[in-house]
Amino acid sequence: MPSDKKLIIYKIVIGAAGGLCLICSLFNLQLDVLNAKALLILFFALLITSRLTLSIPHSESHLSFADTMIFLVFLLFGPEAAIIFGVLEMLVNCSYLIFKGVKFGRFTVLFNIFSTALSSFLTFSVVHLLQNYSHLGRNYEQTSTLFPVLSVLALSQFLFSSLLASFFYSLKNQTSLWFSWKRVCFSSSMTQIVGAGIAGVAFKILNYGDLLTSVMALIFFAITYLYYKQSINDINESVVKAERAQREKAESETKRRKEAERYAEKLADSLSKEEEVSEALRQSKTELEHAAFHDFLTDLPNRTYLVERLRLLIEIGIEISHKYYVLFLDLSRFQNINDRLGHTVGDRVLQLVAKRLVSLLRDGDTVARLGGDEFAIVLTDVSSIETAQLIAKQIHEKLSMPFYLQGHKIYTDLNIGIAPFDADHEKPEDLLRDADIAMHHAKETGRGVSVFTMELRGRFLERITLEAELRFALEREELFLNYQPIVSLKTGKIIGFEALLRWQHRDKKLISPAQFIPIAEDNGLIIPMTRWILNETCRNFAKWQKAHKSRRKVSVSVNISGKHLLDENLVTDVSEALVRSGLPASCLTLEITESIAMDHAERTIEILSKLKRLGVKLSIDDFGTGYSSLNYLHRLPFDTLKIDRSFVNEVGEHGENSEILQTIIQLAKNLGMKVVAEGVETHSQFSLLRNLRCEYGQGFLMSKPVSEADAEMILRSNRDWSSLILDESHESREKTLQSENLPIF
Fold first, then answer.
1. What is the pLDDT of residues 588-606, one digit of tens each?
2. Residue 279 CB: number of other CB atoms within 10 A?
3. Of the ranges 142-156, 196-210, 452-466, 499-513, which one carries the lowest mean pLDDT score?
4. Is the Cβ–Cβ distance between 351 and 288 less than 8 Å?
5. How far apart are CA 167 and CA 160, in angstroms?
6. Which of 155, 364, 379, 595 is 20 to 30 A from 227, comparing alpha carbons?
7. DSSP 8-state class, residue 138
C-alpha cells in the first residue's frame, strides 16, 4: 500500500479513537466542576499559556505550558475536564497558526486535536489503573500522592504522545519508528517533565494560598518566564556568535590549509619530470589548435581551417588541384526551426546534419561548418564535374530526409552550389564566393544542386549592382507606376486597374520587375516601396474620381508582398494611405499571391481579417501556381480570385486543355468569389472565358499596362471593349453559317 494512503488511514484511525475519547469525556463530565474558578483557569490557559513557549539552547525543541495546564486541570477538576481542555487548547493553537499563515495537510488539524484527546485519555487511564491497583490515592493535596501522580502523568503523556507522533512522522517520511522517535520526539520529554513540576507547584498555591499569594506567585512566574526567555535568547545569540566565529575560524584554517596544499601541489608540479611537463604543454597546444580550427557546436572544421586547406590547394597549382571541387551547402528556412521549436532544437538539427555529412564523406574529403546554417565540402580526386554533381545529389537526397526530434518531424530544405578549382582562383575566398553564387542559383531555380559558371558570376555581379542602385531608386524618383485595365467580360466595361511598379534607371535603361522585385523582397526594400505604391496609387485615383465622378466605382489593385503581409504595420500603412488620399476603402483591392497566403495561413487569416475591417477588397493572385489547402482557402476572406496566366495560355484555339481552367472557375463560384483571368491575349481565350462565366479579364488583348496619363484618359473617355464581344458574336455567326453552307455577307 502506498505510504500516502497509509498515512491517511492512520489519521482516520487516530481521529476516530480520539473522537470516541472526547465523546466519552463529554458524556461523563460532571457539570458541577464548571464553576467560576474553572472558567477563569480555562480562559487564562487558552488565551495566555498556550502562547508561552521557551526554546531550549542547543536544541530544536521548545518548552510548552500546554501540558502544564492539562495536568493542572486534571488535578483540580478531573480527567474528563482535562481531556476536553486539551482538545480546546489544541483547537485554539491550530486556529492561531492558521491565522498566522501556517499551511496544514489534509486531516492534520483533526489529527492533532484527536491525538491530544487520545494521548490524554490513555495517560489518565494509566493513572486510574495505578490508583485502583496500588496504594496510590486520589488525595492530591498530600505531597506523597501528588508527586507520584505527577510523575506518572509526565511519563505516560510523553510515552503516548511521542508514540502517536512517531508513527505519524514514520509514515510521512518513510523512516523507521525508532529513528522518528529518537530524532523528533525524544527531546519533547522535557515539556511533560517541566509541565508536571509547574502543575504541582500551581496546584499547591491554588489550594493553600490566598488570592494575594496566587497573584504574587503568578507575577513571580511571569518574571521568571521573561527572565529565563531573555536569558535563553542571550544564550542562543551567544551560541550563534560563537558558532559563527568557530565557523569563520574553521573556514580560515581550511583556506590556509588549501592554500598550503595548492602551493605544495604547484611545487610538486614544478619538480616533476620535464617529459611530463612537455607532454602537458603538447596536449594543451593540441587542444588550443583544435579549438581554433573547429566549430564548438558540431566539432567540424571551421571556416579558418577550410580557408587554410583551400589556400594550400591553390598553392599546389591547378595541375594537381583540378580534381578538387568545393560544395557550398545552405539549409533553407532553417530560421523557421529556431523560431517555431527553439534554438536548442535548432542546434541539435545542425549537429545531426553534421553527422550525416561526415557519414557521406569519402576518404580525403573535408566538411566544414562556415557558420549559421552554412556548410562547405572539399571533394578530392573527382574525375569530372558530372561525378561531383552525382555526389552532391546524393548528399542533397540524404539531407532532405526528415529528422525526428522531441516528437517533431523536421524537414530541412537544402541547396548546394558546386565550384571547380580554376586558374582564376587566386584566393580561397574566390572559390567560396563562386560556390556560394552557384548555391544561390540553385535556390532561385529550385533545382537543389547547381554548378558555377562564368555566366552565373556575371549575373551575380549584376544583381549586386542592381541591389546597390535599387536602394536609391526611390530617392532619385526613378520608380513609377503603370496601370493595366481590368475589364468585364460580360459588358466590355472597365471595372478597375492593377498598379504595376516600373524602374527607369538613371542610365535611361528600363529594368524589368522580374529583376528588381526579387531583390527588393530579399533585402526588405519591398516594404517602403509598397508603402510608396499605396500612397501614390490612392492619391491618383482619389484625384481622378473627383475629376470624373461617373467613374467612382472603378477600383485599383495593389500587390502586397509576403514580407509586407507579415509586417505588423501593414494595416496601418493601408489605413494611412486611404485617409491621406481620401479614396474610399471599397475602391482599393489588395492582391496577395497564393503561395504567400498559404505559407503562414493562420497569420494570413488574422491580418486579412483586420484589412477586411478597413473596408478594402482582397484578391488571391496567381491562383493555381501554389498548393492551396481547402481547409484554409474557405477561411481566407478573399473577394476575388485571379487565375494565373499560365492556365489561360495553355488553352488551345478550340478550347482544348481547358479542364483546369473550368475547375478553378467553378471552385471560385462555390466559394462565393469573383474571378479575374490574367494573360488574356487572343479572341478565342476571351470567348472561352466568357462561356465559362468568368466575370473579368486582364491582358494584352484589352490593353498593355499604360502610364498614369493614359490611364486617366481611359477613365475620362469612358473607353470600353464591347467590340470584342461583338467580334465574338460575328465569329460565332460565321461558324454557324459555314456549318449550314449558307452565304456569308
1. 999 988 777 776 777 888 8
2. 11
3. 196-210
4. no
5. 11
6. 155
7. S
Q: In this structure, what C-alpha cell is assigned to residue 283?
A: 596536449
Amino acid at 81: A
CB atoms within 10 A of CB 559: 21
Contact 561, 527 (CB under 8 A): yes
Burial 349-372 (b: 16+ CB within 10 A, else e): bbebbbebbeebbeeebbbbbbee
Q: For residue 103, what is the DSSP state? A: -
Distance of CA 73 to CAs 30, 68, 85, 334, Å? 13, 9, 8, 80
Q: Which residues, listed in sequence order, are joined to residue 405 by a DSSP beta bridge?
A: 408
Closest by alpha carbon to 160, among 196, 124, 107, 200? 124
DSSP assignments along 374-392, one per residue: EEEEEE-S---HHHHHHHH
Residue with cell 500603412: 573
The Cα 214–Cα 204 span in angstroms is 10
Burial of 534 per CB tally in 10 Å (0-12, 13-18, 19+): buried
Q: Any idea which residue has 546597390 for its cell?
A: 468
For the chain, the first-to-last Cα distance in angstroms comes to 106
d(CA 187, CA 181): 9
- What is the grid cell recorded at 360? 557521406
Q: Look up residue 603 and give its amino acid.
A: R
For CA atoms 277, 281, 286, 288, the dihedral sign is: positive
Q: Is residue 40 helix, strand or coil?
A: helix
**Cell numbers at 313, concatenated:** 590547394
**What is the pTM for the complete model shown?**
0.52
d(CA 296, CA 369): 10
pLDDT at 736 over 50: no
Alpha-carbon separation of residue 351 from 295, 357, 362, 369 (angstroms): 11, 10, 19, 10
| Residue, of 179 and 438, whose pLDDT is higher | 438
Q: Give which of 186, 149, 151, 146 is closest to 165, Cα–Cα.
A: 186
